[in-house]
Amino acid sequence: MSKRPPVIISCALTGAGDTRSRNPAVPASPREIADQAVDAARAGASVVHIHVRDPETGKSSTKFAYYEEVVQRIRASDCNVLINLTTGPGTMMTVPTDAPFRVASIPDAELMTPRERVAHVVRLKPDICSLDVATMNFGEAAFVNPANHLREMATDIRAAGVTMELEVFDFGHARLASHLIATGAIPTTAYFQLCMSVPWGAPGTPTVVAEMQRLLPAGARWSAFGIGPDQFPMVAIAAILGGHVRVGLEDNLYVAPGKLARDNADLVAKAARIIQDLGYEVATADQARATLLA
């Protein structure tokens, strides 16, 4: 058996994309999201990453009441899974090709200020929140997170006592995040989430993951995930390279080729089997707290 530390499994429960129409198991209401968080924890996840949706339409939402209900339900449960709230919404924009060039939010989304993007984190004080260190093409839109926004968000997150998960999608994002840590804008307690195979970010191959890892600060804690069919290969790649892993219906709807996942726990259980089959230990929530919140 390997002596490497236990592997933390994060579960990204629902995301912001229009995925419920492709797999009805994607949770939408606060109760569904919280229930799947608890089930994922029982299957082996020690961190749950949370977006919220309008329970009537299933579309992405930033309504505080939805975040609050999900967090309260998880905290009232009998599991001590770490809660990780997203700060990603409010960043997607389109730029028309005809003059005048005016930036606009994409349909069904609103551009938000840095302070608005972290307001729910400041009020609810989860264990962790994401911080997207990424400006990039995202489908036909642009995902925009300039450095001045990141500094302002990091200041508020740090004041709330919340650990930051730095989501990086390409090599330059890893370099920027490392620079923000080196200059004190982001604390050294932050850890990295390598987001692989996302159009148009870095591909999810072993050599690319290893190079992205090399760009991180010495001793940095990190996790990785791949989207779609790259989800489970990335579990193995990240674990072998010494990182932690993420799975969930935000990133992938299938537990096997052509077989839709029944829920998030279905994906977590498979990730746990892969980790154990490699000879590694799956981290408990207490072990994840000691690793990520130290």
UniProtKB/TrEMBL annotation:
GO terms for molecular function: 3-keto-5-aminohexanoate cleavage activity; metal ion binding. Keywords: Metal-binding, Transferase, Zinc. It holds the Pfam family BKACE. The keyword Translocase does not apply. InterPro entries: Aldolase_TIM, BKACE. Its cofactor is Zn(2+). Coiled coil: none annotated. The keyword Zinc applies. This is 3-keto-5-aminohexanoate cleavage protein. It comes from Ramlibacter henchirensis. The lineage of its organism: Bacteria, Pseudomonadati, Pseudomonadota, Betaproteobacteria, Burkholderiales.
